[in-house]
Design goal:
about 425 residues, alpha+beta, six-stranded mixed sheet, five-stranded antiparallel sheet, 7 helices, 17 strands, about 20% helix
């Protein structure tokens, strides 16, 4: 039987079933439209994903940096806080393998601007205090070229030796004489101080007990931190060495660097470089290296500022002051009795950080509310970044996302002292 279809094929052998050119063009056009739409969705998704990831990264960096500061500031002043009346503000003298490390005339970047800001009276002189803010001594990613703050935090090993001991007799260059040596061990790190006078707080020396260890009433000195001659003369004009100390001197146990359980003191600087990276620096070189390098803690931090929380006594409410005037480094670190009393009023540190994403967006995404410490009294400066990020100032900075985080950290030892 010959069907109609077969008949048509025989009548027109060139006829083939399929799509016309118009139909194919319509399908291709629909496919292109769908591809553009899909790629647009993927592009938007990837952009949002990158933004979310960048913001999460800076939040984690900022929180980690705050965590590190919180841990150290809360313990600041451990070991030497009980001798605040005699030792706060004493000028630190320390050597490592006979090489002077304090005073530190030079420091590695990003702390190379610090020595000139703590010149009291010698460049690079540091004075004993739980926490000191050095304004403008660091770097910053702020487009206007501003400088961030540097924070100095000092403490011994918490719980290792919270009470000082007075000398039994004048020290020699190799021995410290005490009524007893309970609580001291071989290789312990010592801080030696002296009675103050009307001229101010006497210098203090970092020393170390030798590997043999203490006797019943003597601490024999030795080890990598031992040095008989210091770099600082006493206020009464004696030679710069520990044998010039009076019988009224005192010793504080800061910790120990020997053995598998390291119980070391922490004398640290914290600050930013110009690439939004947050660093720390060990003033005591506890890793044993003569040339210490700054250690990276976190990145993505655009600016770093701090202010003091102060109270004259436990019955007075905490007030906030900027590190200027009576609380400027020049005044706090002049070694006077007044500076010693002022240092003892510092009870807390307020930390502020501006975080910035590492990758710029294609459009302006910066908010206009970029101010720090907005809840503090009018007398405390509130850094304002709106002007430095304005369209007339540095428009490229508006393509980054920013966050401001702040934390109030109590100095527990100062509050308990």
């Amino acid at each position: 039987m010959i069907t109609r279809t077969n008949a048509l094929r025989r009548a027109n052998p060139n006829h083939v079933n399929g799509f016309s050119v118009v139909e194919l063009m319509v399908v291709v056009a629909i496919g292109l439209i769908m591809s553009v739409a899909i790629f647009g969705v993927l592009k938007t998704f990837e952009g949002r994903k990158r933004s979310t990831t960048s913001v999460n990264d800076i939040n984690q960096s900022g929180n980690y940096a705050i965590y590190q500061l919180d841990k150290l500031i809360r313990s600041a002043g451990s070991s030497f806080n009980s001798s605040a009346n005699l030792m706060y503000g004493c000028r630190l003298n320390a050597s490592l393998n006979t090489t002077t490390i304090l005073p530190a005339a030079t420091l590695p970047a990003p702390f190379d601007k610090v020595p000139a800001n703590v010149a009291t009276p010698t460049t690079g002189s540091f004075r004993l205090a739980p926490a000191i803010i050095i304004p403008g001594a660091g770097y910053s990613g702020v487009a206007s070229g501003g400088s961030s703050d540097v924070l100095v935090v000092m403490s011994g090993y918490g719980g290792f030796g919270e009470e000082h001991a007075y000398f039994r007799a004048p020290p020699s260059t190799t021995n410290i004489n005490l009524p007893n040596t309970i609580g001291f061990n071989a290789n312990d790190i010592l801080l030696l101080g002296d009675q103050s006078s009307g001229a101010g707080v006497a210098p203090c020396y970092l020393e170390q007990i030798n590997t043999t260890g203490p006797t019943t009433d003597q601490l024999p000195l030795g080890g990598v931190y031992y040095k008989a001659a210091g770099t600082d003369s006493y206020w009464y004009g004696s030679a710069a060495n520990i044998s010039a100390m009076t019988p009224q001197g005192l010793v504080v146990n800061l910790g120990n660097l020997a053995g598998t359980s390291v119980k070391q003191p922490s004398f640290q600087l914290f600050g930013l470089d110009a690439k939004n990276q947050f660093y720390s620096y060990d003033l005591l070189h506890t890793d044993g290296a003569a040339s210490e390098a700054a250690q990276l803690i976190a990145d993505g931090i655009f600016d770093f500022r701090a202010v003091y929380g102060v109270a004259p006594n436990s019955a007075t409410a905490l007030t906030w002051v900027a590190p200027t005037g009576a609380y400027s480094p020049a005044t706090l670190l002049d070694g006077s009795a007044t500076a010693n009393a002022t240092l003892q009023t510092i009870r807390a540190i307020r930390i502020g950080m501006v975080l910035r994403t590492s990758l710029p967006e294609k459009t302006n995404v910066t908010t206009t509310n970029l101010k720090m410490f907005t809840d503090l009294p009018a007398g405390v400066p509130a850094p304002n970044y709106n002007n430095s990020l304005s369209s007339t100032g540095f428009p490229s900075e508006q393509n980054y996302r920013y966050r401001i985080i702040e934390s109030t950290i109590p100095i527990r030892n100062a509050m308990l002292n």
